[in-house]
Amino acid sequence: MIAIIPARGGSKGLPGKNVKELDGIPLIAHTIKAAIGASCVDRVIVTTDDRGIAGIAEQYGAEVPFLRPEALATDTASAVDVYIHAVNFLVERDGADLKKFMVLLPTVPFRNSRHIDEAFELFSQSDCETLISVRRADVPPSWYLKVGENGYLHSCGFGMESGVLRNRQDDGGYCIPNGAIYILDFDILVKERTYYTDKTVAYVMRESDSVDIDTYDDFCYAEYIRSKVNIENGSCHGGIPGCHKIF
Q: Full-prediction pTM beyond 0.90?
């Protein structure tokens, strides 16, 4: 399977984040090394608009067969269009068979080769169309409130019965995408422009493996996790009841 890593040069939340060093190497290198080390990955493709990122990606063993068009490197560019562009390029140039392909975001540095292989095995053994990696939600949906114009709190309507917040334990099974691993169907992506179908399976990861860096605070948290937690050991595929096929 081909793994695509999208890494544009511009970032407002944390400028230069894809090449910012974490644990002595550029952030994107963690994802490249994980992909190269996974037995299920045949090729690692980085799609970027930035020559500096391209050089670092090649240095760590990834292919950078093109520089992404400027129109696909803006804040408003659709990730779907980025993936379609990359797949079309590889199909037209190499004749690659990319009906299914993997996407690994470079901002999730603690996803490792084992996670990738486990996700691929789950995908291969499931009667599914796509796979999305997730982590347990921080809080249940019923905790979400909004502040009105008068400053008063109002329910968002996500299961807050009688105005009483339910306990965290009462809302088991909720999870959110963590950006670590996507296995997508090209035809569905083009036609429906979505990662999700009625047959999308969830690969569940623990929170410490799911750190997604978008801001300086995220980066500081990642540095803390790296210094305090042995990322390479321990359980990496959590068991959230009912979570495997809820998407």
A: no
